[in-house]
Prior knowledge:
alpha/beta, 46% helix, N-(1-d-carboxylethyl)-l-norvaline Dehydrogenase, domain 2, Rossmann fold, 2 domains, binds NADP nicotinamide-adenine-dinucleotide phosphate
Amino acid sequence: MKILVYGAGAIGQFVGGMLVRGGAEVHLIGRPALVSALAAAPLQVQDLDGSVHTIRLTVSATLAEAPAIPDLVILTVKGPATAEAAADLAGHLPAATPVLSFQNGVDNVARISAAAPGLAALAGMVPYNVVQIAPGQVRRTSDGQLMAERAPVTEALLAICERAGLALDLRSDMRAVQWGKLLLNLNNPLNALSGLPLRQQLLDRGYRCLLADLQQEALAVLDRAAEPVAQVTPLPPRWLPRLLRLPTWLFKPLAARMLKISPEARSSMYDDRLAGRPTEIDDLCGAVVRCADSVQQLAPKNLALARLVREAPAGRWYGAAEIAAALRS
Ligand SMILES: NC(=O)c1ccc[n+]([C@@H]2O[C@H](COP(=O)([O-])OP(=O)(O)OC[C@H]3O[C@@H](n4cnc5c(N)ncnc54)[C@H](OP(=O)(O)O)[C@@H]3O)[C@@H](O)[C@H]2O)c1
């Protein structure tokens, strides 16, 4: 299978690299820094068990330089870049080329379909954290299995993933899966504002209670909107706020799997804030607010957190009490 990964950052390099291990022919579309790095040395992909795979694949900064028409596109740009990426793909690829979104949020399939109605957009979900150590070097820092919409092309991808040791679950309820993941991703803005590594931030009950409040608000909105929410962690989604509010001494053993993250890992929204790039806040808290609007309900905490992320000055980090005060206002 010829696979084109469009937007090769942390996730794109990890998934693309692993798929080469499974026998796919992968071409990456990335920024010039990645193109230069991979001209100098092969891609280095470190998996959760510490094993490092050295992978040779092709890369270019533009679609015009891509070597072949792909059987499948995997889209891994951040949400704000989706529409532009989809329009670029539509300008270069034959109609009906499948485009699998391995992005967070619930809106990217609709964005791809709107910007590129001729392409076949498919939903996917990446449950784990991947960090880019440097262009051409990525490391997976937590566990879980990829999920994707069941379709002939993802059925074919399954065999490649199996050979690569890359767990993939094919589903027919991807919207519910994406809402289930979004509940967990509501921690990304808190992590980005805290400036702390994820593990350290999750071990602080103040931040956990904020996350519980955001999730509870989102769950109430989703109930009202009759949007199903799939279980994407060992615990059903409705139990998550209760788990998060437990005292840390009790949370730590019960959430051992959630805390199995490399000590230095942070959310990629932290990286975006640090680099002054647009964040995915509109795809996360913004999606909850839009869903609330659609059923004439309010989501004041998600609304306030989205505003805080947009307005927070670069380099300013926030304690849990400060964020709580902003959410109350
Ligand atoms: N990283 C994680 O742990 C993780 C886990 C689960 C899900 N996700 C989701 O997966 C998606 C990708 O995340 P990520 O962390 O891999 O993001 P990322 O590291 O920022 O990767 C996206 C890459 O695409 C590049 N890009 C954007 N537009 C491009 C274009 N037109 N041509 C070439 N390159 C382009 C970006 O460059 P610029 O930065 O220069 O624009 C960036 O290098 C997001 O939706 C994220 O929420 C991430």
